[in-house]
Structure of dTDP-glucose 4,6-dehydratase:
Amino acid sequence: MNDTTTRLRASDLEDSGDVGCNPTENLTMGEVIATRFNRRDLLRGALAVAAISATVGNRALAANEQPAKKGLAPSFDFKEIEAGVDHTHHVAEGYDAQVLLRWGDPIFPDAPEFDPASQSADKQRRQFGYNSDFVGYVPIDGSSDHGLLVVNHEYTNEELMFPGVGVQDIKDVNFSGMTRELVDIEIAAHGGAVVEIQRRNGRWEVVKNSKYNRRITADTPMDITGPAAGHDRMKTVADPAGRKVLGMINNCAGGVTPWGTWLSCEENFNGYFQGKLADNHAEARNYKRYGLGSPAYAWGKFHDRFDLAKEPNEPNRFGWVVEIDPFDPTFVPRKRTALGRTKHEGAAGITNQDGRYVIYLGDDERFDYVYKFVTAGKVDPANRAANLGLLDEGTLYVAKYDADGKGTWLPLVHGQGPLTEANGFRSQADVLIETRRAADLLGATKMDRPEDIEANPATNRVYVMLTNNTRRKDEQVDPANPRANNAFGHIVEMMPEGGDHTATAFTWEVLVKCGDPSVASVGATFSSETTKNGWFGMPDNCAVDSQGRLWISTDGNSAKATGRADGLWALETEGEMRGTSRHFFRVPIGAEMCGPFFTPNDESLFLAVQHPGEADEGSPASFDNPITRWPDFKDGMPPRPSVLVVTKNGGGKIA
Ligand code: FEO
Ligand code: CA
Ligand code: CA
């Protein structure tokens, strides 16, 4: 998972700057600053951070001068756990973490029990998938004890899933161990799941005979909707109309809409395609910008559509936000092209004061951008069917963070500014298919890998997780990305003008720079109340609970990187405690923390433990020789990615 890794597996794709690099020469914020200050005064390193911070508003200082506003989130009061790494998970004292759904668990009455020694694609299609990332809870009749869990299965680890297979890559073994059967199991283990769950006598259980339960895979038929549907660049041999596609891939984070649908986001889709296009091919520039050409999976060996030479348009049909109605098991998932094509992290939204729905979107790549989508129509609480059309019409914007703590949302609209035929954009479909290149031309701010973004309905502030970017150089440092060689990431807080999420103006500041605050050269800015267990690196997913409190899960901590496993931390955002972080949960060795998602009453918290037992800092790990057998700890059973639900012993809110 570090920069010296040579394999291009899916987890490495998340961390790979070799692909999809932003080639533009948009001014970095450091250059913007340099135009305001004499170049000689633009200090480097930690001193630069102090100098640059002084140029933007600092709400933390302001908050110290006045009492905390009434009605804002109360402070956390759980007793934090000790940071560290071992074979299992840990949760704060007084809480219970129940393993609810493991990879391979049957989710239908007739589904076969999991047997890793005799897995098949048919079995896998009836069982819970691999590497859960986003977990959403959609209440049934408003209940916090009965609802539908919607879960993304982001990617697969062949070396941990299959006996005797080991790591399969293109560089060292040319996928030689991958058979068609294994590839088809992988395809069936991708996608997502809808699972009805119910809480009885305090324990959550899966309702196996539910009419709602469903597996979605990387070959489930889906519709393509919105402005790019039917465009020539979306057409393939199998789909001459350009409106139907098989499957969704590498679905990372997502969102749940107020009308009860699940938004599932395709992230590192590039790693699934093999073959090369000629440099003068019409799609060559497009595919370079998204990092195609370095396959992490062998799928193209057995399925022509994953081979660029045979089906050059297929990659244009991935990289979208997919909307799924979990209450209708026959619903054909819809790829909503109006929301743009990027390596989408998440799609959490908020209903604006005027009723329009606003979705915040991160494009997880070094030096890529923060986006938002504003629907043209308004959410109608009385008309669910009408809301199902909302995401096909609206405006996509990309963020530009100015040096003075202000910022602008720039619209990606065909015909406006540089988004014209002269630059290769003949229609809005072109703008959306090449969202990144359109944003390049608009001059968006290059960020340190934007992951989850969540709005806090209590304050209208928006939190942007920027997980890390070790390739940012001193001269590329800017106020919104204030550290060179940013190994530990940071969080930016945005305030839409007038609390209006549709506004094109906003203000912003850095909420916290992550990493060990006791090491001066790291430049972390957690509050002094944060303990040695309380700080974290690499923020990835996040949730705002119903009381407006921010919870953050991480990806990339390890014994070597930070002396701690990934996990969940609670971060104070208000008053004098602002910037204080506390450790609530940690994952077993090799895993990253995904989720988190709360029930409406904050009494249950869903978490996903992704890729437990994956090689940690280069040490070997395989099905036959795992570094943990979490969560079953049985001989012959590999580690199993799982969804957990955390509750308070004796009941009550998680806080
Ligand atoms: Fe799949 Fe950006 O994490
Ligand atoms: Ca993520
Ligand atoms: Ca991740």
Q: What stands out?
A: The chain has twelve helices and 31 strands. Residues 252-253, 345, 451, 540-541, 555 surround calcium ion (ligand 2) (CB under 6 Å).
